[in-house]
Amino acid sequence: MFFLQMLINGIVVGSIYGLVALGFVLIYRASGALNLANGEFVLFGPYICLVLMTALNVPFLVAFIGTLIISAILGLVVERLVIRQLQNAPTISVIMATLGLSSLLAGAVHIIWGHTTRTFPPVFPQTPLNLGGIIVTPVYLWSFIIVMILLIIFSLFFKFSKIGLAMRAVADDRQAALSMGMSVKFVLAVTWIIAAMVAGIGGILLGNINGVNPTMSAIGLTVLPVVILGGLDSVIGAIVGGFLIGIIQNLAGGYLDPLVGGGLKDVVPFIVVLLILMLKPHGLFGSRGIERV
């Protein structure tokens, strides 16, 4: 039963990891750079949602939608004011810009909301569910359902919508997309908007599970092994990698941490990624580049 309990917790947390990793992958596919401020995007979501619920006394659903709108605006502002100015700069310049943005956003969170842990008002039912002897907290179950619905919506969006197809075209070949009359600037702006929104959603779900404090931004580092494991340019890889890392991390926390005094749970994902990359350098689903010499 303990194994199944850890497995279910890992699946739920892993689904949220996959959702957050999706933002990493989208930006990498569009610009070839890693967004090192993704953890701070995750952090802003639950704080905004909490302010809307507690200060304005709006229902969770309204606060959730409001958070998505504000997160989208944040993503658009970052793209317009920072990323667009670096469109002809080396990739390392973009990465360093996101690193600086990470520090700026983290500082803003500390100044505005402080360091204490805040909890959401009861949003989901509080009575645990007993599924064949396995205790499942409703917040875990609903978080998993919400993430699955969102992942299906995003999959359909990328496959069938005009904007989704344009994003895929720009990711595959920017010059070809330009020659077909596509607006790369518009596509990049939409990419950052979506990345900020999925990060905010992930933060809200994690905030309902564990509470909200500035250390939540560490998920940006935790999700990095997810992205690398699945493949930096693979949406499917981000989802599969999220589940794998979530399950492995929870099993390590349940079985190995008591043996070594704790701390191994946060290290195991990086060990797993290192071993996988020794066999598959491009990740499980990453595309292999072709180099002419």
UniProtKB/TrEMBL annotation:
Organism: Ureibacillus thermophilus
Membrane topology according to the record: Multi-pass membrane protein
Main location (coarse class): membrane
Any one Gene Ontology BP term: amino acid transport
UniProt keyword annotations, A-Z: Amino-acid transport, Cell membrane, Membrane, Transmembrane, Transmembrane helix, Transport
A GO molecular function held by the record: transmembrane transporter activity
Biological classification of the source: Bacteria, Bacillati, Bacillota, Bacilli, Bacillales
Entry keyword Transmembrane: yes
The protein's name in its UniProt record: Branched-chain amino acid ABC transporter permease
Coiled coil: none
Transmembrane segments: 6-28, 35-55, 61-82, 94-113, 133-158, 186-206, 218-247, 259-279
Single GO cellular component term: plasma membrane
Localization per record: Cell membrane
